[in-house]
Each structure stands twice: as structure tokens, then as C-alpha cells.
Specification:
By secondary structure, the protein is of the alpha+beta class. It is built from 21 helices and 50 strands. Strand 37 (727-731) and strand 38 (735-739) form a beta hairpin. The longest helix is centred in the middle third of the chain and has 42 residues, at 358-399. The protein is elongated and about 155 Å long.
């Protein structure tokens, strides 16, 4: 509203009446009559102010005012005008005691042309950042979103850091306040990169700014590196903590992005705990977003408990049967537990907006700090030299009793002349000439001071001044070193407790379709060719979510992938419907079809990895009329069944029935035509035997940077896993478990063992038993794979020392030195011989009674595992040439003993000529 008032005042000052000397009404009458100004009074038309001109001038003035005086901070001190005026008022009122915020707001209104509400809100924001203002009372909570108490109930004073860093009146440039009654600083002489420490956000007219807050200690370290000529990098740090991915930060420039996440961990089998929240949210908005996602069916939760006080603690209780790991991913995908922030580095420099990155901001701020320190040193040097000059004059004046020369003088001019004449013989060593002002100051010395004058103390005072002058001159000559020491002092004095709060980590991309809860049911009308969630009277297919893709195949060999909807037409004669997984190379489709009316019958195996939605694809050869699918199956793990082919008894056909094993068919792209089965008419094809997976075990890696499993060859290779294999996990707390290795698994930060589980391989543990205060050893096998167990005793001081999965582990015991005795030699222990394999709940054997300094793991003894029984593998050939309609030419792998008798058909595809007949 204040801006509008000022705009109206400007409008009144520049009204047409002021410019033309006549009223607006008269002008409106002229403009209503189009013929009034033609040839009669051309001068009056020229005096009119066009609306376009008014808009350009006034809007530009308004935009400039909002940009410079309201929304965007200055690079010189990092403050917006209202923040600068608040700090100046706090300094005016500073007496070491707390002041009511209401009093500070009222005092600030002497300098600020706007209302008290905007001042109070700005002051609360500064206070919540816990850097410049020492607060007392309820200043709100950035974690819960609770507002501060009324300004009459809370108090504030400047922090010691602000008093040291922000103010220096002798080098401050001053200007008149808005009403001319007061003086206020143009910019405060801030000797610290305050803008980056606090961050800034503002929306002006035509531009905005969003500068992230950064870590206090890291800013000082970066300033020191800049002064030393070294490179540095800066990343945000938020007071709400959380986890951040800054891989696309782009130095805080336009186009960059930060991903922020809440810190979520598994509290128990059915409970998740949120201990840190992402920047830009609070516990209230976070809980609301979780409840909304639950209402929409994206996630399933039982209830939420908010136990937040000084620290965040939100408990999310899950219903039975819901995976905690998938729920964590779903919280990131569908709630405010993860969000993106787009930084925009816009600042004011020399009354102009400027877009720069945080690196350049810090360099300019550091250079400005060096210049301010130089100005302070120069002023300090000038003052010290002035003190030395007058102290020297005072000593000469009193020591040589020049004050007696003025006893006979009767005029003021005579007094000045006498003193000047008396000083002349003794002023050759002074650093500047004696002025009349110096002599006047000498005349003001009291008799009491002259009578108690001590020559030794005076000389000592001069010596101290000379030492300080020499010190200041040294600082000026080594200004960069002085600035580095200044920043180091700030770090040592105020850096305690200001360590980084936000954890920097690379995030893995979460696919929403993989973690969303299946909240609706899918139905199909095969004859009519419709698929959807509203066909409740028709055949049920599967549970799905409203963001899933659906794949469907029809009897005439067509395929289509489409978004879940209430009712979608695919094509008559639907033979297969399922939820489609993008880039899924493990799902294999087995198909036998007739290529056109009267054409040959072909067999093919293929997968579908990428498609265009709502487009019909021909799976049956070239899409000839009369194409018919005799047999079709979808296999999520590449299963290969055995089917029986029955031919029609026509003519002199000798072999009317035989079996085909899909395991003998190579997996190709969906556009391949396949291998020929027969050129004769097929009566029917029957399933004879369900098959096993023909895919190789899945290779898994663990990427430590994102703490997730992957199949993309990133991180540490864990091994090849079949559907029967499990993953062994052991934590520093002593928790041991085995799990089915899914890509959605989350891992604690204290994982010490992560490998493929061998049920016959014992685990060896060395631990400190808290009650007996001795080290114990135990070896055991995991008998209950689905149960999480603790290998330590229940005593709170028990802790894990070593855990090994080697067959024959060796440890080294380093004994502590006893007083008055030589240190006992280190002892190597073969744990396989030391203790036999027992149950996981056994306490184990005592390792030693002697005091132990440390226990080290050595190279284990060699051990050869028995070779597993060899199995025959079927190689999977992945083809991505899905839109070319031809085979990619990959070779076919068959079981041993079966020859390759393939040829080429008229379309150039592989044709099996005699394998099945």
C-alpha cells in the first residue's frame, strides 16, 4: 500500500494541470470532441500528456524504487534497506542490554518510510538466522513454522559478532533520511561475506533474487583461500539441515538447481522417522503433503506423530505389509520430503542490478573487507601519530617549562607567540609542523597535570605509541596477511557450533512408477477391446496406480502402450494386458503367430524397452491382413516354456504334432520377424510345460555416493544374484540381517558389511562386552535369514570391534603397556582355531584378560571354496533397434548338441527351416 501512496503522490505532482496550467476536466472535454483541436488550438494539443508516456516514466520510477529500495540486497554490505536501518537503529540503542523489539521498530521508523509490520517481520527474519541479533523470548521456530510473539513481548540486542564486524562509524558514508531529520548509513562497513552467510530472497518489478545461505566456517575458509590466490568452491548450507544435492548448483547463477531432501530412516519394521527437513518447508507443511499423498493413494500410511521440539522428530507409522524402503522413495517422489530450489544471484552494485555467481560475490566481499581494514588502519595510524605528536609537544612544553614564558604576556596573541617561540628549538624531531591548534591545546593543560607530570611515564607512553605506530604500519605494508589473520580470528572466536548442517550427497533418480502404491484396479473387455479402471463388470487384470503405463497385445499381432485411464480402446481380441515397465529388459514375451492369411507360422521371443505411447506396433511380422496369434505369454523373469504344436490333417503331412522349447529361441528386439515353425496350417498350440528363467543372474553394484544398489556398473561390484540369493548386511551397532536385493533398498550410514550372502560361510565377530569389560570372540552362521538379530550383548557399553566374513580370519592384538614393565609383544590369533562355530546368540570366548590397546585385522589364511555345480546359461541379446523393423544380426545361442540350421526369408529375417519339422 505504501508504494501505491507514493505513486499517487507522484501522480499528483506530475498532473496535467501542473504541466498545462489548466484543469483535467477541460482536457477531457477537448479529447471527447475529435474536431475541437483541428486547426483551432494546436498548442493545447501539444501540451497533453499521453498515457503511454505517463506509463513509461512512472512505471520505470516505481520499478527502480522497488528494486533498489525494497527487494534486492546491496553487495557492499549484504543488506536490504530495511535490514540496514534495523541494524543502524540497534546500534543507536545499544547499551549492552536487551531492548523491546517494539522500541527498536519504532526507532527504525525514523529512517524507514514504511509501516511497522514490515520492519518487525524483517527483524524477526534476521533474528532467526542467529548471527547478528542476540534474541530473547519467543522468536518463532523455523522447524515447525510457528510465528514469533508480538514485538512488544520479545527483546533483542546486537550480537558480539555484529558489533565487531558490521559497524565502524569513522569509515561509514552517511546520507539524509527520507524526511531529512536524521542521518543514516549509505552502506554499513561490513567486514565479512554477510550476504552469503544469511542468504537473500526478494521479488521486485521485472526481476527477483534468490541467494542461498552458506556455511559460516566455509565462507571464512574461502575468503582466506581467495586472499592466498587459491581456488575454492562454495555450496549452500541450510539451518533446517537435511540432505542436499548440489551437482547442478551452477555457482548460484540463473539456470542452476539444488535438490533438497528430508533425512528419513527406518525406525522399526513398521515405522519411519524423519529427523531433518528440507529447506523451504516446516513440519506442518511436510506432514500436510504426506497426508495429501496418502489421500490420493500415492502412499499408504497408518498415522503420523509429530514429536518435534528442539529437533525434528516425525514418526510415520506404516500398515502391515508395506515396504519401508519403497515408502521412503515414495515420500521423496510424491511429498515435500524432496523439492528443488532454483537459485538466482542478483545483487545491487552502484545502484544497478547485477547478476553474478556466489564465487564472484565472495571475491568482491573479501576484497571490500580488505579495503575496509585498510581504511581502519589508516585512520588508526593517523590517530596514533596525532597522539604521539601532542604527547611529544606536551612533554616539551612541561619539561622545558615553556608555560612560564606566558606569565608576562597580556594578550592572547602574545601567549600563542610566546609558546610558539619557546617550542621552536625542540620541534625538529616532530613529524609535522606545530599549528596554532596544537598551541591552543597546550594552553588548556591544567596546573594539576603539570605539577604531577612524570617524565618517565611520559617517555613510556611515547614508546608505546611508537610501537603501536610501527605495528599499524607493518599491517598496512602486509595488508593481505593482516586480512587473513583477521578472518582466522573471526573463525576461532565465532566458529564454534557453526559446522555444516546440510549433508551434501548425490541423489539417485526415483522413478515414481516403481514406488507408487497400486491404488486402483485394472479391468479388460477382451472381445470389445477396451481396457480401463471403470470396467468393473468385466475381467479383473491387476492392481495399478493412476500414473502407470499399460501394455496390451491383440489377436491380430498388434501392441499398444498407453496411460491408465477409465476406459481406453486398444483393439478387438485382446490376448494380454499388464503394467508396462519402461527399460525393462528382464520381461520377455513369447509369441507364435501366423503371418497373414494362409501364411507361414513363426516363433519369436522379444522384450519391449522403449515405445511411443498410444501408437499401434505390429508384432506379427509385417502386419499383413489375416495375421493371427496362436500363442502368447509374458514372462517377468525371461521364463521359457515348452508348447505342443498341432497341425491340421491336410494332404500328405506326416508329422502332425511336436513340441517346441522356447529356451531354444534367441531373445531379440520386438521388430524381428522370428524363426519359422511350419508352412502348414496350425490347428492349435497347447502349453505342455512351464519353464524356468533363461536369463543370467542379475549383476549388482553398490554406489557409495548415493548409498544405493544399481545394475549400471557404478560403484563396488557385489556379485551375480538369482531370485534365490540374498544380501548380507551388518551395521556398526551389531545388527545383522539378510535381505532380498532390491534396487529400492535404503542403507544406514554405519554399514560395515555389505556382500552377497553365502549361507555356509561363518561370520567372525570380536566385540567389547560392557558388563565384564573384556573382549570376546564368536563365530556363527545365520540360521534365520528373514530375522534381524544383534550379535552384541544387551549391555549399553557393549560395542562391535571387528566383524569378518572370511573363512579363516587372522587378527593382531596390540597390548597396552603396563607401568614399570615392557610392552607385551603383539599376538596373532587364528579365529578359526580359537573358537568353533556356534549360535548367533552365544556369548563366545574371552579373547584375553590383558589390557588391549587395539585390535587389527590381518590378511586371512588361504581357503578354496568348493566349486558350485555348473549350469548351462542362455545368453540374452538386448536389441534397441525397435523402430527399424528388421533383425539386428545378433547370433543365436542354443543348448549344446543342437545345430544352427537357419536361413533367410524374403524379408531378410532368420528362418528356422528344419529344426521343428
Amino acid at each position: 500500500m505504501e508504494e501505491n501512496d507514493e505513486l499517487n503522490e507522484a501522480e499528483n505532482q506530475n498532473s496535467p494541470e501542473d504541466q498545462s496550467g489548466q484543469s483535467t476536466e477541460g482536457q477531457e472535454e477537448q479529447t471527447d470532441n475529435p474536431q475541437a483541436g483541428e486547426g483551432e488550438d494546436q498548442g493545447q494539443d501539444d501540451a497533453l500528456t499521453r498515457v503511454t508516456g505517463m506509463y513509461k516514466d512512472w512505471f520505470l520510477d516505481y520499478a527502480s524504487y522497488v528494486i533498489l529500495e525494497r527487494a534486492v540486497p546491496a553487495i557492499e554490505d549484504g543488506f536490504k534497506p530495511v535490514q540496514r536501518r534495523i541494524m543502524h537503529s540497534l546500534k543507536d540503542l545499544d547499551d549492552g542490554r536487551y531492548n523491546k523489539v517494539a522500541n527498536v521498530v519504532g526507532h527504525t521508523m525514523q529512517y524507514h518510510p514504511h509501516g511497522d509490520a514490515s520492519i518487525a517481520d524483517a527483524m524477526v527474519q534476521i533474528g532467526q538466522k542467529d548471527l547478528l541479533i542476540d534474541t530473547q523470548g519467543n522468536w518463532g521456530n523455523i522447524l515447525t513454522g510457528d510465528r514469533a510473539a508480538a514485538s512488544r513481548y520479545i527483546e533483542a540486542r546486537l550480537s558480539k559478532f555484529a558489533l565487531e564486524v558490521v559497524f565502524s562509524p569513522k569509515i561509514t558514508e552517511w546520507q539524509q533520511s527520507y524526511d531529512g531529520r536524521k542521518k543514516e548509513p549509505v552502506n554499513l562497513p561490513v567486514k565479512f561475506p554477510l550476504l552469503l552467510a544469511q542468504g537473500a530472497e526478494g521479488i521486485a518489478v521485472g526481476l527477483s533474487t534468490k541467494i542461498m545461505s552458506h556455511n559460516f566456517i566455509e565462507l571464512i575458509d574461502a575468503s582466506i583461500k581467495h586472499l592466498k590466490g587459491q581456488r575454492f568452491k562454495l555450496f549452500p548450507d541450510f539451518p533446517t539441515s537435511g540432505i542436499i544435492d548440489v551437482s547442478n548448483y551452477n555457482d548460484g547463477l540463473r539456470g542452476g538447481k539444488i535438490r533438497v531432501r528430508a533425512k528419513i530412516a527406518q525406525h522399526s519394521k513398521s515405522t519411519l522417522i524423519i529427523s531433518e527437513i528440507p529447506y523451504g518447508t516446516n513440519t506442518s507443511t511436510l506432514i500436510d503433503s504426506i497426508l495429501k499423498a496418502n489421500d490420493k493413494g500415492k502412499i499408504k500410511i497408518k498415522k503420523i506423530e509429530d514429536n518435534t521440539a528442539a529437533d525434528v522428530e516425525i514418526l510415520v507409522h506404516l500398515p502391515p505389509g508395506i515396504s519401508p524402503d519403497k515408502t521412503i522413495d515414495a515420500l521423496y517422489a510424491f511429498t515435500a520430503c524432496e523439492s528443488s530450489i532454483s537459485p538466482l544471484g542478483c545483487i545491487i552494485e552502484d545502484n544497478k542490478p547485477l547478476f553474478i555467481g556466489v564465487t564472484e560475490m565472495l571475491k568482491r566481499s573479501t576484497d571490500a573487507t580488505v579495503e575496509l581494514l585498510k581504511q581502519e588502519l589508516e585512520i588508526q595510524l593517523s590517530e596514533l601519530e596525532e597522539q604521539w605528536h601532542f604527547a611529544s609537544l606536551e612533554r616539551i612544553f612541561i619539561e622545558n617549562r615553556i608555560y612560564r614564558d606566558i606569565e608576562e604576556e597580556e594578550t592572547w596573541e602574545g601567549v600563542i607567540s610566546a609558546i610558539d617561540k619557546g617550542l621552536a628549538p625542540f620541534t625538529k624531531h616532530l613529524r609535522r609542523a606545530v599549528t596554532e591548534e596544537d598551541i591552543v591545546r597546550l594552553t588548556e593543560i591544567r596546573i594539576k597535570r603539570i605539577s604531577k607530570f612524570d617524565l618517565d611515564k611520559a617517555q613510556q607512553h611515547l614508546d608505546n605509541l611508537e610501537e603501536r605506530i610501527a605495528e599499524v604500519k607493518h599491517h598496512l605494508e602486509h595488508l593481505v596477511d593482516y586480512a587473513i589473520a583477521y578472518f582466522q580470528k573471526l573463525k576461532d572466536t565465532y566458529g564454534e557450533g557453526r559446522q555444516r548442517k546440510s549433508e551434501i550427497r548425490l541423489f539417485d533418480d526415483i522413478e515414481a512408477t516403481k514406488v507408487v502404491i497400486r491404488n486402483t484396479k485394472l479391468y479388460v473387455n477382451r472381445e470389445e477391446g477396451f481396457v480401463g479402471t471403470s470396467l468393473r463388470r468385466d475381467e479383473y487384470v491387476t492392481d495399478c496406480s493412476d500414473i502407470d503405463d499399460i501394455i496390451a497385445f491383440t489377436q491380430d499381432g498388434k501392441m499398444m502402450v498407453f496411460k491408465v485411464d477409465s476406459k481406453t480402446f486398444v483393439g478387438k481380441g485382446i490376448i494380454y494386458v499388464a503394467v508396462f515397465k519402461k527399460k525393462d529388459k528382464r520381461t520377455v514375451y513369447n509369441m507364435i503367430y501366423r503371418d497373414g492369411k494362409g501364411g507361414a507360422t513363426y516363433i519369436k521371443r522379444f522384450n519391449v524397452t522403449s515405445i511411443t505411447r498410444d501408437k499401434h506396433y505390429e508384432m506379427g511380422g509385417s502386419g499383413k491382413a489375416g495375421t493371427f496369434v496362436h500363442y502368447f505369454s509374458g514372462n517377468p523373469n525371461g521364463e521359457a516354456e515348452v508348447v505342443t504344436v498341432n497341425l491340421r490333417h491336410v494332404g500328405s503331412i506326416k508329422k502332425l504334432k511336436w513340441d517346441i522349447d522356447f529356451a531354444n529361441i534367441m531373445i531379440k528386439g520386438r521388430a524381428s520377424k522370428g524363426n519359422i515353425v511350419t508352412k502348414y496350417s496350425v490347428k492349435r498350440i497347447e502349453l505342455k510345460e512351464k519353464g524356468l528363467s533363461t536369463l543370467k543372474p542379475r549383476k549388482l553394484w553398490f554406489d557409495e555416493t548415493v548409498q544405493r544398489l544399481n545394475i549400471d556398473d557404478r560403484g563396488e561390484f557385489l556379485g551375480e544374484f538369482t531370485s534365490e540369493d540374498r544380501l548380507l548386511i551388518a551395521n556398526q551397532t551389531g545388527q545383522v540381517k539378510t535381505v532380498i536385493p532390491e534396487l529400492t533398498l535404503h542403507f544406514d550410514e554405519d554399514v560395515v558389511v555389505l556382500e552377497k550372502w553365502n549361507p555356509k560361510k561363518p561370520l567372525s565377530v570380536v566385540y567389547w562386552e560392557g558388563e565384564k569389560e573384556l573382549y570376546y570372540v564368536k563365530r556363527f552362521l545365520i540360521d534365520h535369514p528373514d530375522k534381524e538379530e544383534n550379535v552384541l550383548t544387551d549391555h549399553p557399553k557393549s560395542h562391535l570391534e571387528i566383524i569378518s566374513t572370511d573363512y579363516r580370519p587372522i587378527i593382531e592384538i596390540v597390548f597396552a603397556k603396563k607401568r614399570g614393565q615392557d610392552r607385551k609383544e603383539n599376538l596373532e590369533v587364528n579365529l578359526e582355531e580359537f573358537i568353533s562355530v556356534k549360535g548367533i546368540g552365544a556369548m563366545g570366548n574371552q579373547l584375553t584378560k590383558d589390557k588391549v590397546l587395539e585390535i587389527n585385522m590381518l590378511e586371512p589364511l588361504p581357503y578354496e571354496e568348493p566349486e558350485p555345480q555348473k549350469t548351462e546359461d542362455i545368453e540374452v541379446v538386448d536389441e534397441d533397434s525397435v523402430d527399424k523393423g528388421v533383425d539386428s544380426g545378433a547370433t543365436e545361442t542354443k543348448k549344446t548338441g543342437e545345430g544352427d540350421k537357419s536361413a533367410k526369408d524374403e524379408d531378410g529375417d532368420d528362418v528356422q527351416t528344419s529344426l521343428f519339422e
